[in-house]
Amino acid sequence: MFQRILVANRGEIALRVIRACKELGVEVVAVYSQADRDAPYLELADRAICIGKAASADSYLNIPRLIAAAEVADVQAIHPGYGFLSENPQFAEICRSCNFEFIGPPHEAIRKMGLKTEAKLIAAEAKVASVPGSDGAVTSEAEALRLAKAIGFPVLIKAAAGGGGKGMRVVRDEATLPASVQSARNEAEAAFKNPAIYLEKYIDRPRHVEVQILADLHGNVVHCWDRDCSLQRRHQKLVEEAAAQLPIDVRRKLGEAAVRLAKAVGYTNAGTCEFLVDAENNFYFIEVNARIQVEHPVTEEITGIDLVQQQIRIAAGEPLPFGQDDVRSEGHAIEVRINSEDPDHDFRPSAGRITDLRVPGGPGVRWDSHVRAGYSVPPNYDSLVGKLIVHAPSRPQALARMRRALDELVIEGIKTTIPLHRRIFRHKDFLEGNVDTTWVERVLMPPK
Ligand code: ADP
C-alpha cells in the first residue's frame, strides 16, 4: 500500500478521498487554490499545499503545479477525483512518467474512451450495441445530411470529445441541420478545443442507465451493478438511483456488456459504462467515464463496496478481493445533488456564505459534503455543495426516507436545489418510476 497520496481536486470529492485514505491508514495531502484557502476539509488532511490562484487554469488544472506539490510532499500516488484533470490522458501519463501512480485507468484507455467515436468502435468489437449513428466523425454538412437521412430524423449531433452535455443538438428535420452542425462545432471547439462532431439516432424518451466497473491490474474485471440517472436537466444529472428498475436478466446483460467493453480496451481501476435504455428495455452504449463518478455512493450503498478505497487498492497493485458472484445488489439507494443554484431563476449559480446548515440523520442517511455553516461557496467552481444519499430495503422505503431527509435538510444563506428535490420526491411520475431523461424539462418544469 502507498504511504502517502495527493488529492488533485477540491470540494466534496477531495473530502471523500481524504476519508478513504484515513480508513486505509494512508497519509493524505490536499491541495488548494487561493479561493479554497478556508475550506474546512483541508484540516482533515495530513498536509495542505496551496497550488495557485482561484482560476482553475492556475490551480486544479495546472499540471506543473500539481506535480510540484506531489514532489514537495513526497507522495507515491495521485488521486484525480472527478472533473478537472481526472480524464486527461496527458495528466495520467505525466504522473506516471514522474513516478507517481495515477489512481485511474491507463492513459491509453483514457485516450481511447475520451473520444466517443473511438469508444463506439471498441464497443462494436466487444459486441456491445451502441446508439445507431455515424461511424466516426462527420466532417461536412453534406455528409451530415446524407447520414441523418440514413439514420432517420430526429438525430442528435454530439461532440466527439464532449462531456457535461456540451455541444449536443437535437435536429428534427433537414432544414435545421446545417445551422445545428455549425453551432455544435463551434461549441465543441470552444469547450473541448476539438470541433469534431458525430451523429446519433435521437432515442425517444430514454432512461439513462450506467454500470459501475472495477478492474484490477491482474486481469480481473467485475461490474458492481447499475445506476439509473434518468432524472436530468439539460443533460446534467439531478438524482441517481441504484438499482435500476429493470428485470434481472437485463441488468445481468448490461453488466456483462460493460465488463466486455472494459476488457476490450484494457481498462483498469474504477469506471462507468453509460447506456440509454428504450421503452422495450433495449440498451445502447453511449460512453465510458474513466473516473470515479459523482453518483458512486449509491453503488457503495447497495453493494457494500467502498469504491474509492478499491481505486486506491487497485492502483497499489492489490487484486480485487471479490469475484463477480460476491458483488451483491441489496435494497435501494438514492442520491440527490444539492447544488448552489436557484431553481426559480434558471438555475443561476448562487455563491456566498452559508449562514445555517442542518444536516439530516437517522437510519440509512448519508451526507457527503465539504461545506459547513460559515463556509463561503466560492463562485469559481462547480455548484455541488453536497450529496444526500439514502439506503433502504426497497424503493418505496428509500423514497420515503429521502422525502423526510430532504425535509430535515436546511441550508441558509444561499439558494439551493433543495426545494426542487422536495417537489420531485412528491411527484407521482417519479414515485412510480415513470420518468426518462426528458421528464424534468417536459413535465416538471416545462418552458413557460
Ligand atoms: P456527456 O458526455 O456530454 O454527458 P452523454 O453522451 O453522456 O454526454 O449524454 C448525456 C445525456 O444526453 C444522456 O444521459 C441522455 O440524456 C442524452 N443523450 C445522449 N445521447 C442520446 C441519444 N442518442 N438519444 C437521446 N438522448 C441522448
From TrEMBL:
<dbReference type="GO" id="GO:0004075">
    <property type="term" value="F:biotin carboxylase activity"/>
</dbReference>
<comment type="pathway">
    <text>Lipid metabolism; malonyl-CoA biosynthesis; malonyl-CoA from acetyl-CoA: step 1/1.</text>
</comment>
<keyword id="KW-0092">Biotin</keyword>
<comment type="function">
    <text>This protein is a component of the acetyl coenzyme A carboxylase complex; first, biotin carboxylase catalyzes the carboxylation of the carrier protein and then the transcarboxylase transfers the carboxyl group to form malonyl-CoA.</text>
</comment>
<keyword id="KW-0443">Lipid metabolism</keyword>
<keyword id="KW-0436">Ligase</keyword>
<feature type="domain" description="Biotin carboxylation">
    <location>
        <begin position="1"/>
        <end position="445"/>
    </location>
</feature>
<dbReference type="InterPro" id="IPR011764">
    <property type="entry name" value="Biotin_carboxylation_dom"/>
</dbReference>
<dbReference type="InterPro" id="IPR051602">
    <property type="entry name" value="ACC_Biotin_Carboxylase"/>
</dbReference>
<dbReference type="InterPro" id="IPR005482">
    <property type="entry name" value="Biotin_COase_C"/>
</dbReference>
<dbReference type="InterPro" id="IPR005479">
    <property type="entry name" value="CPAse_ATP-bd"/>
</dbReference>
<keyword id="KW-0547">Nucleotide-binding</keyword>
<keyword id="KW-0444">Lipid biosynthesis</keyword>
<dbReference type="InterPro" id="IPR005481">
    <property type="entry name" value="BC-like_N"/>
</dbReference>
<keyword id="KW-0275">Fatty acid biosynthesis</keyword>
<dbReference type="InterPro" id="IPR016185">
    <property type="entry name" value="PreATP-grasp_dom_sf"/>
</dbReference>
<dbReference type="InterPro" id="IPR011054">
    <property type="entry name" value="Rudment_hybrid_motif"/>
</dbReference>
<dbReference type="InterPro" id="IPR004549">
    <property type="entry name" value="Acetyl_CoA_COase_biotin_COase"/>
</dbReference>
<protein>
    <recommendedName>
        <fullName>Biotin carboxylase</fullName>
        <ecNumber>6.3.4.14</ecNumber>
    </recommendedName>
</protein>
<comment type="subunit">
    <text>Acetyl-CoA carboxylase is a heterohexamer of biotin carboxyl carrier protein, biotin carboxylase and the two subunits of carboxyl transferase in a 2:2 complex.</text>
</comment>
<keyword id="KW-0276">Fatty acid metabolism</keyword>
<keyword id="KW-0067">ATP-binding</keyword>
<keyword id="KW-0479">Metal-binding</keyword>
<dbReference type="Pfam" id="PF00289">
    <property type="entry name" value="Biotin_carb_N"/>
</dbReference>
<dbReference type="Pfam" id="PF02785">
    <property type="entry name" value="Biotin_carb_C"/>
</dbReference>
<feature type="domain" description="ATP-grasp">
    <location>
        <begin position="120"/>
        <end position="316"/>
    </location>
</feature>
<dbReference type="Pfam" id="PF02786">
    <property type="entry name" value="CPSase_L_D2"/>
</dbReference>
<dbReference type="InterPro" id="IPR011761">
    <property type="entry name" value="ATP-grasp"/>
</dbReference>
<keyword id="KW-0460">Magnesium</keyword>
